[in-house]
């Protein structure tokens, strides 16, 4: 397995030296035939030297286009260099890491948080996109072949970069019916991703991917089960039964698909919710421990400290200090 970057201390640094300009945070619904293409956020992120994150995992697919500079992503135990003109795709629920290597000062990217569904409810996700010819190249490249990166041909890059500029212009000016322009731009954006993926389609017949697609759907069912009941005790045998697999094959397949074991995924969800509760509520540590299904407050505190680098009682203060440090760093950069 590829070696992950390590910081000098055990403290997890959550996206230092990052400037993010949010183009759109309104849920957009874009029809593509019988399918709904959901956009939850579109942002232009500028990450500077020293930026890194560990153990990221989110509820929506994430598509990243590098505008300039470069960065490193690690996913599926692979390292990928995201350079100018490249797409990088992270499926929902998959553990990944990222950083900027020494000597690189900037990584600017367009980040789209999205999902697909068969209806208006964005929670009813659709993962078997192979039934829709319009997005089949996207599905085959990123989901079935598990390709992390997609290199865009020089002919398509100017069109994509024009979309980035148009998104910024429309959201800044917010002229009449700007939301319709956003929808049309994002639909064109998706079409160009599919076109770039089609240029790189392998010669393997699609029918050979049928078993892989079926396996992914089974694993997705188990992942959703964990997501809906992560505060409750769960066994590998239960989850394997949900996926119609043997426990051994299930654990191996789940880790390959999502970057961590089923039990690690449950622990990740608990930890993420613990962070949110610590930052946004006045709940006591014992209350959070009980709510999230930990066996005791002491066990919760040990697990939290070992993963995050600070105790739950010091987490809020720690995050406030980091925010102040990032703010002063960005302000220093802006004044130079």
Short description:
The protein has ten helices and ten strands.
What proportion of the residues form beta strands (DSSP E)? 15-25%
Low-confidence stretches: 1-16
Question: CATH H-level name of the largest domain... which superfamily?
Answer: Regulatory protein AraC
Assigned CATH class of the largest domain: Mainly Beta
CATH architecture type of the largest domain = Sandwich
* Overall radius of gyration: 21 Å
Structural class assignment: alpha+beta
Mean pLDDT: 78
Beginning-to-end CA distance, first to last residue: 41 Å
Helix content: 40-55%
Oligomer: single chain
What string, H for helix and E for strand, traces the elements in order? Answer: EEEEEEEEEHEHHHHHHHHH
CATH topology of the largest domain, by name, is Jelly Rolls
Polypeptide structure, described:
It is a single chain. With 336 residues, the protein is an alpha+beta fold. The chain has 3 domains: 18-202, Jelly Rolls; 206-259; 275-336, Arc Repressor Mutant, subunit A (Orthogonal Bundle). It has 10 helices and 10 strands. It has helices spanning 136-144, 157-173, 178-199, 210-228, 236-242, 247-258, 262-280, 285-291, 297-308, 312-335; strands spanning 18-24, 28-32, 35-48, 52-56, 61-75, 78-83, 86-90, 96-99, 106-117, 149-151. Strands 1, 2, 3, 4, 5, 6, 7, 8, 9 and 10 form a 10-stranded antiparallel beta sheet that branches. Helix 1 crosses helix 3 (178-199), helix 2 (157-173) runs antiparallel to helix 3 (178-199) and helix 5 packs across helix 6. It is globular and about 55 Å long. Mean pLDDT is 78; it is low at 1-16.
What key attributes describe this structure?
Jelly Rolls, disordered N terminus, 336 residues, single chain
């Amino acid at each position: 397995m590829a070696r992950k970057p390590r910081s000098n201390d055990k403290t997890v640094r959550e996206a230092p030296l990052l400037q993010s300009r949010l183009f759109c945070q309104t849920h957009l619904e874009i029809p593509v035939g019988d399918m709904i293409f959901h956009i939850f956020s579109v942002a232009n992120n500028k990450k500077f030297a020293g930026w890194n994150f560990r153990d990221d995992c989110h509820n929506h697919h994430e598509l990243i286009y590098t505008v300039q500079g470069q960065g490193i992503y690690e996913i599926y135990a692979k390292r990928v260099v995201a350079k100018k003109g490249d797409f990088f795709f992270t499926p929902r629920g998959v553990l990944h890491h990222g950083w900027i290597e020494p000597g690189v000062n900037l990584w600017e990217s367009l980040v789209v948080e999205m999902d697909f569904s068969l209806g208006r409810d964005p929670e009813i996700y659709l993962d078997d996109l192979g039934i829709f010819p319009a997005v089949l190249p996207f599905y085959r490249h990123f989901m079935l072949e598990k390709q992390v990166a997609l290199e865009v041909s020089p002919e398509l890059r100017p069109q994509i970069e024009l979309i980035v500029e148009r998104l910024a212009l429309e959201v800044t000016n917010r002229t009449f019916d700007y939301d319709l322009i956003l929808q049309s731009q994002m639909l064109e954006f998706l079409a160009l991703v599919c076109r770039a993926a089609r240029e790189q389609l392998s010669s393997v017949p699609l029918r050979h991917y049928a078993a892989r697609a079926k396996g992914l759907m089974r694993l997705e069912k188990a992942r959703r089960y964990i997501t809906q009941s992560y505060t409750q005790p769960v066994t590998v045998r239960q989850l394997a039964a949900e996926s119609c697999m043997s426990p051994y094959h299930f654990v191996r397949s789940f880790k390959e698909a999502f970057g961590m074991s089923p039990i690690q995924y449950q622990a990740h969800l608990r930890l993420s919710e613990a962070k949110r509760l610590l930052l946004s509520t006045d709940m006591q540590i014992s209350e959070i421990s009980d709510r999230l299904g930990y066996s005791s407050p002491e066990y919760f505190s040990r697990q939290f400290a070992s993963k995050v680098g600070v105790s739950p009682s010091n987490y809020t203060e720690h995050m406030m200090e980091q925010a102040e440090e990032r703010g002063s760093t960005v302000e220093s950069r802006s004044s130079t």
